[in-house]
Amino acid sequence: MAPEPRPNAGHLDDDDYPAYTMGRAAELIGSTPAFLRSLGEARLITPLRSGGGHRRYSRYQLRIAARARELVDQGTPIDAACRIIILEDQLEEALRLNDELRRHEGRPDRHTGS
What is the pLDDT of residues 30-45, one digit of tens each? Predict the structure, then answer.
């Protein structure tokens, strides 16, 4: 008899699945729950809430929080760190769109030259 499929098994590869509690998320990025709350207050990341109202974070959100922690550890104020991360994200998206448009027009990709 085959085992029953686990309903959450598909979430293992999902970067957006809110798998981490606040305490575990803080531990993983080497910060405190207060730091994660401050990122939420700055609207850099918005954790999902469990049925009981507890904050839950995804791997994607943890990468953003880790980048914010890196900037803050270098002396950047948290509000400036959040703005830097938002601008970095916007730049990455703009570059991705430019590459897509170039490929669509048959022009070489800026990374590979092909």
Answer: 999 999 999 999 999 9
